[in-house]
Amino acid sequence: MKVAPSLLSCDFAKIGEEIERVDRAGADLIHLDVMDGHFVPNLTIGPGIVKAARPYTKLPFDVHLMIDYPIDYIDAFADAGADIITFHLEAKSDINDTIDKINSRGIKPGIVIKPKTPASAAFPYLDRVYMVLVMTVEPGFGGQSFMADMMPKVVELKKECKKRGLDVLIEVDGGISENTVSAAADAGVDICVSGTGVFKAEDPAKAIAFLQDSDKK
């Protein structure tokens, strides 16, 4: 399993140092949560912060757009250095048009589903995306408790992809830690996003290694 530390839980006053710290600790990707204060009740970073953070690592930037009209911001985040851009099926932009826009910039597209959205909502787009992100908390704030009842969605998505011969990665985000990752591993998750589980860990390298190896336990 790959691990994507979420910058939502880092010390924003030292964002460059924090990125370098988890890079050295063995992270596979860097997860950047973008919130607009409308789609979710919180504001976080914009393209300027992503651009400023980009020189601190060569790890892929996994940019998660929690905004009403993601299609309007694809160019800005592409220019800032995103490698993967995921957006919510529940957002207001046309889904296929948004996927097309992401692809047009040479970036890997992904779709995201909230806890109340069924896995089947992602099925029509599985042949068009690199990744499906299953939220294991309600999006908007870090530090929430993991929702284990989202794992059947992961199983359902993996089964559908296998049936159709698709190599789509399944990512989970929210409440992932040493205490909860086994459920994700058992469901077949490919990438886990972990914020406090990594950035607040006494030893980030040990925390990342534990998560990465959880599917082997």
Helical/strand content category: alpha/beta
Shape: globular
What is the share of helical residues? 25-40%
* CATH class assignment: Alpha Beta
What is the fold named in CATH at topology level? TIM Barrel
The CATH superfamily label reads: Aldolase class I
Can you give a write-up of this model?
The structure is a single chain. Helix 4 links the parallel strand 4 and strand 5 (108-113). Helix 2 packs parallel to helix 3 (74-80). The chain has helices at 15-24, 47-53, 74-80, 95-104, 151-163, 181-187, 196-199, 204-212, and strands at residues 2-5, 30-35, 61-66, 84-88, 108-113, 131-135, 169-173, 191-194. It has a single domain (2-216), classed as TIM Barrel (Alpha-Beta Barrel), CATH 3.20.20. It contains eight helices and eight strands; from the N terminus they run E-H-E-H-E-H-E-H-E-E-H-E-H-E-H-H. The model has no long low-confidence stretch (mean pLDDT 95). The protein is an alpha/beta fold. Strands 1-8-7-6-5-4-3-2 form an eight-stranded parallel β-sheet.
Q: Key features?
A:
single chain, TIM Barrel, alpha/beta, 8 helices, 217 residues, 31% helix, eight-stranded parallel sheet
Short description:
The protein has 217 residues and is α/β, with parallel strands linked by helices.
Mind sketching the topology for me?
Elements: E1 2-5, H1 15-24, E2 30-35, H2 47-53, E3 61-66, H3 74-80, E4 84-88, H4 95-104, E5 108-113, E6 131-135, H5 151-163, E7 169-173, H6 181-187, E8 191-194, H7 196-199, H8 204-212
Parallel strand pairs: 1-8, 2-3, 3-4, 4-5, 5-6, 6-7, 7-8
Helix pairs in contact: 2-3
